[in-house]
Structures are given as C-alpha cells and as structure tokens.
Amino acid sequence: MFASLVLLGLLIFFLVYLLKPQRPKNFPPGPPTLPVLGNLLHLSTDDPLKDFERLRKSYGNVFSVFIGPQPAVVINGLKAMKEALVNKGSDFAGRPQDLFINHVTQQLGVVLENYGTTWREHRRFALMTLRNFGLGKTSMEDRIHEEIQQTIKTLEKSIGSTLSPQVIFHNAASNIICQVLYGKRFEYNDEMIKVIIKCFTDNAKMTNGPWAMIYDSLPILRKLPLPFRKAFKNYETCKNIAFDLLKEHKETKVPGEPRDFVDCYLDELEKKSADSSFSEERLAGYSLDLYFAGTDTTSNTLLTGFLYLVGHPHIQERCQQEIDLVLEGKDQVSFEDRNNMPYMQAVIHEVQRIANIVPFSVFHATMKDTELMEYSIPKGTMVIQNMKSVLTEEGQWKFPHEFNPENFLNEKGEFVKPEAFMPFSAGPRVCLGEGLARMELFLTMVTLLRKFKFTWPEDAGEPDYTPIFGLTLTPKPYRMKVQLRSKQ
Ligand code: HEM
C-alpha cells in the first residue's frame, strides 16, 4: 500500500514536472510556472499593467511570463526597447502566428502579418497612398477638416449644457478613416457601422478574456463549438461588409482616377501579376485592419485629451492664447501651423504620453534566435512591449508621473521630443498611421479649442483619470460642459 502511494506520488510529481512550461537556457527570468496555465494566475485580466510593474521590480527590465504553455518576453524601459525594436529591428519584427486573433482574422490583414514580402509590399503601398498625393483630388487635411465641421455642428447643439464626448469623438475618428478608405462618411446611426463596431467590440473583449486564453492554451479544444466560435462569425460578418463596399467601388471606379484607398488598391491590383501578394480578399482584410487600427486609438486619445484639458483649465487657456495669436486672421488651422505652436504641440504629446493608448503595443515575435540585454531569445518567441515603462520612465522625463506639458518644452519654451516618447512604438513595425493620427489630433484639438471652452460640470465631483484596461486604454465615461468662446 505504502509503495503504491509513493509510486503514485512520484508519477504525479513527474507529470507536473513534465507539463510545467520550462524556460530555455539563458532565457529572461520570471515567476514560477504552473502546468498548462503557465503564469496566467500571475496576470489579472482587469489590469495586467500593475502585474507587469510588480514583475518588473522583481525580475528586471527584460523578464518572461508563460501565457498558458506559450513563453513571452516582456520588454521594459527605453534601453531594452531600443535594442529590440531599433538596433535589432528585423530580429524582433515578426508577429506571433498561432494565436486566437490570428485565426479569427484568417491571416488576412497586415497588422498581424508576419515580417516578410506580403507585409512589406502592403506596408509600402499604404504609406505611399496615405501621403497626401496618394488619395486623389481631396487632400488628407481637407478630409479631416470636413469631418471636424460635423463635430462642431454636434457640439453646437449642446452649448450651455453638458455632453458625453465618447460617441462624438468615436464617430469623428471612424468617419475620417472611412473617408480615407472608402471616400465617404457614415451617419452616426448608420446600420453598417453599428454592426461593424458591435462585432469589433465583442471580438476585442473576447481576445482579452478567458476564452481566448483557453483557445491559445489548449489547441485540442479549438474545433469545438465553444463560445469563442462567435468571434469567427463576427469577423466573417465584417469581411462581408468590406466585400460589399469593394464591389460598389469596382462598379463605379474610373481607372487612373482613384477616389480613395480602395480605388488605389484596385488600380494596383490590375498592374500586378497573378502571383502577387495583392488580392481582393486581402484588400477586404486590410481595410478592416486600417479601420480598427485607426478608430479606437485616435478617439480614445482625443477623449483622454479633453478629460485632462477640462481638469486643467489653466493649460486649456494657455493653448487658446497660443491658438488665437498664431491663427489671427486665418479661417482655419493647417497642419503646418504646428511649427508655430510649441505649447499646443507639447500638450498633444503630453496627452499621448499620459494616455498610453496601446499599452502593450501589438505583440511582436522574434524572426531568428537572437539576444536581448544579454539574454538568449529563441526564434518564434512572443515579445510584449510594456509601453508605460518607457512613457513614464524615471530619468527620461522631467515629470514622469504627472500631466505636465513641460515634459516637452525646453528652457526657451521650444518644443522638444524626448527619445522615450514612443506611443506609436518604433522600428520597422512603427505605427503605419502615425502621420494621419498626428494630423487628426492636431487639427481636431486646435479647431475645437479655438471655437469652444470646455469645463468640468460643477456637480460632477472630481475628474477620475484612471483608465479602463483593454486592447486600448479608455477613459471612464465623463461629461463636459461646452461654451462658445467670445474671442476667436
Ligand atoms: C493616436 C493614434 C494611434 C496610436 C497611439 C497608434 C499606435 C500603434 C502602435 C503602438 C502600433 C504597434 C506598433 C508595433 O507593433 O511595434 C500600431 C500599429 C499600427 N497602426 Fe497605429 N496607432 C494610432 C493610429 C493609427 C491610425 C490612424 C492608423 C490607420 C491608418 C493606424 C494603423 C496602424 C497599422 C496598420 C499598424 C500595424 C503596422 C505594422 O504591423 O506594420 N494606427 N499603432
């Protein structure tokens, strides 16, 4: 009896040992792992940012965690981030290929495409097209201004009262990217946009939640009719909508006279050979990618910006003084004007720094066996950037933990951008929409601050700046009071 118990004990011990994920030799350190679960119990789904900070304190700027059986290296701080993303950019420019989200999106887009020819050709094409000259007669700046006029109309309806800016900014960002992609805007209550947003929000929640973890950790369950199947259906619905828009474009387009991104891609498709990486299916996936990558990021940055500006009226007023001075006699602001507005530039950058909109960037993967800060990292390892660790790193900022535009101003009041400012990430995978996003943020914030004064409602208590965690960080819902400014 005793011998059987000892044997059983030994068997369990070996099973646990064998099933327990093991760190390869000279791999970055991290917390002890459990069989199957890895380090999932060390990471909360509500706010893993705090867990990462705790683990960073224990294990240093480069540590590892197991998401189920999958090892992931977490990079913190400017030094490690630069070594990985810039100095060894091509080693670290891959994307994990076997996660829930890869399977849901059928490897169609570009955001999750691995580092290789398809990614390179598509990235180059988008960068060219998104530059002002790529999009035909209407420049990017005009498209953005058209949408800001719609935002102004909506805000004007609330003058003297309070409103929640969430839907307004979301619609503005959504319509700007729709103007770029499809050459048209959609009304606030458009059924098609509502379906796309619902499918996307549900999928984002699922990607962050336990079902995606189960899918990733236990491949054996992937084909079963479990709740994660809904995400595949949602993506299919979005893809069909993208195909309908594509069909409409094919029927109405004039060759050589592109109206928007989709027309440009269709023109390109005609020029390409049969074995090219360009295809209608990829165009559908690509347009969805750009839509999602460009909507929540920009709108949540604007939401965070106005939250801080109503909470810091003296900063809002200083922006308005600069805007009035620089734009005196001008009908509308242009992106060029930013060069004469150091304070406004500093405020927008400070908003982006404090907002930390994409807290873990998009996961990277190593393309070959490589090294980081003297640790060995095998090919195919998942790499997670902890963006907050750089955006609030002590030693890199004058005021790392407070909202203060002085972080971006020198003694002469000139605008300066510290190296640790990387909300768009860095290296070969740096955000493809950075130019568009910066233009949107500048033109929107300046135009709205020139026309309106935004204040915190007297009866709303104190502003709560704690964000809600997700693929993007979102401010808690808030209301603000809108008044017309007298001096413009
Ligand atoms: C304030 C707004 C934005 C922020 C903070 C932001 C941030 C980011 C970050 C951190 C990444 C991941 C980079 C990496 O993997 O290292 C990324 C990737 C990307 N972003 Fe943005 N983004 C913003 C707006 C936009 C817009 C407007 C577009 C649309 C045109 C866009 C399109 C993309 C695409 C396509 C990628 C994938 C690039 C690649 O994999 O090569 N983003 N963005």
Automatic annotation (TrEMBL):
<keyword id="KW-0349">Heme</keyword>
<dbReference type="InterPro" id="IPR050182">
    <property type="entry name" value="Cytochrome_P450_fam2"/>
</dbReference>
<feature type="signal peptide">
    <location>
        <begin position="1"/>
        <end position="21"/>
    </location>
</feature>
<dbReference type="Pfam" id="PF00067">
    <property type="entry name" value="p450"/>
</dbReference>
<dbReference type="InterPro" id="IPR001128">
    <property type="entry name" value="Cyt_P450"/>
</dbReference>
<dbReference type="InterPro" id="IPR017972">
    <property type="entry name" value="Cyt_P450_CS"/>
</dbReference>
<dbReference type="InterPro" id="IPR036396">
    <property type="entry name" value="Cyt_P450_sf"/>
</dbReference>
<dbReference type="GO" id="GO:0005737">
    <property type="term" value="C:cytoplasm"/>
</dbReference>
<keyword id="KW-0732">Signal</keyword>
<keyword id="KW-0472">Membrane</keyword>
<dbReference type="GO" id="GO:0016712">
    <property type="term" value="F:oxidoreductase activity, acting on paired donors, with incorporation or reduction of molecular oxygen, reduced flavin or flavoprotein as one donor, and incorporation of one atom of oxygen"/>
</dbReference>
<dbReference type="GO" id="GO:0006805">
    <property type="term" value="P:xenobiotic metabolic process"/>
</dbReference>
<keyword id="KW-0479">Metal-binding</keyword>
<dbReference type="GO" id="GO:0020037">
    <property type="term" value="F:heme binding"/>
</dbReference>
<dbReference type="GO" id="GO:0016020">
    <property type="term" value="C:membrane"/>
</dbReference>
<protein>
    <recommendedName>
        <fullName>Cytochrome P450, family 2, subfamily X, polypeptide 9</fullName>
    </recommendedName>
</protein>
<keyword id="KW-0503">Monooxygenase</keyword>
<dbReference type="GO" id="GO:0006082">
    <property type="term" value="P:organic acid metabolic process"/>
</dbReference>
<keyword id="KW-0408">Iron</keyword>
<dbReference type="GO" id="GO:0005506">
    <property type="term" value="F:iron ion binding"/>
</dbReference>
<keyword id="KW-0560">Oxidoreductase</keyword>
<comment type="similarity">
    <text>Belongs to the cytochrome P450 family.</text>
</comment>
<feature type="binding site" description="axial binding residue">
    <location>
        <position position="431"/>
    </location>
    <ligand>
        <name>heme</name>
    </ligand>
</feature>
<dbReference type="InterPro" id="IPR002401">
    <property type="entry name" value="Cyt_P450_E_grp-I"/>
</dbReference>
